[in-house]
Structures are given as C-alpha cells and as structure tokens.
Amino acid sequence: RAWVMGTNTKLPDDIAVKWAVAVPESFHARFSAQQRRYRYVILSAPVKPALLAKGVTWTYKSLDVERMNSGAAYLVGEHNFNSYRAVNCQAHSPIREVRELKVYQSGGLIVIDVAANAFLHHMVRNIAGVLMKIGCGEAEPIWAKEVLEAQDRRQGGVTAPPYGLYFVDVKYPDEFGLPKSDLGPYFLTALD
Length: 192
Hints:
single chain; alpha+beta; six-stranded mixed sheet; about 25% helix; 5 helices
C-alpha cells in the first residue's frame, strides 16, 4: 500500500498506480507480456462533448456497429499489419496476432475492443480509422481486408485521433501471480 500511495503522490493527475507486488528478476513488464488489450471509445452524436472532449473521439457521423464488426472480422488472426502501422513504426516485423476484435455500443458510446499478442505504432488508431469509415458507410466492410492485404500504409484510412484510446489490460504468465485489473475506462463500466 505504501508503494502505491507514495508513487501516486509523484505522478501527474492522468496516471495512477493501482497495485504493486514483488516479482522475480526474470520478470520484464514489456517482454513477459503475452497479450495486451486496448479500448477505443467513440461518441457518435450531432454535437461534440464538453466533459469528455479528450476522453472520447467524437464524430458527427452516424456509425453502424454491425458494419464495423463485419469489417473487424477480417482483421482477427495472425496477419501482416503493415497497412495498419505508422510510417515511422520501428518494429522489426509487422506480423501480429489479433486475438479478439469486437465493436459494441455502451450507453451512447461505441467501443472498439481489441486484444493481440502485441501492437504496432498507431495500429489501434489506424484500425479505428478504417472501422469508422466503414461504420459511416463511406467504405464497405471488405475494405478492412483490402487495406490489410495491400501491406502498404498509404492504402489505409485516416489515423483516428488519440482521444478515446485506452490501454486496459495486459496478460502475464500465471507464474508471476499478478493481480487482475478491472477493464476500463471506468466511465464505461457505469454504462454497461
């Protein structure tokens, strides 16, 4: 408890430590991870939000969740995600395994929930940009697959804004005995 409370007094308001435990020297926060999960939260409404202006991505366009899920289905599995990474991404390989990718409505918000073994620079935001274009009817769901198969970032959609992107979970081997975290962001759980 002292580590958590003491560390949090030194952190900026938008970062908080939730727990602290001792781990063996073999543990590495990045390289021991087996899976990561992000949630990208979108407000599709005629008027921009005031209170969550930087907590969600806003679009005035109406988004069809079913169309977005149809496009998302093409991205599940192990693929070359070169079209979905930033031009300046420094990863040695664009091969990633997307294990889960679903789009759902939570209250008045649309959530893109994606879990993978690892992510490339801007990968989630680029997936969100493609799915939003599909959701508003500017592209067909098959376009997500066409972008993927092009293996060329220039063929991809617009990179979605950073607002609404949340890193919500990481899975480590059970041997480390790390506590499970509640998936966030917290304002979503109040809506579910």
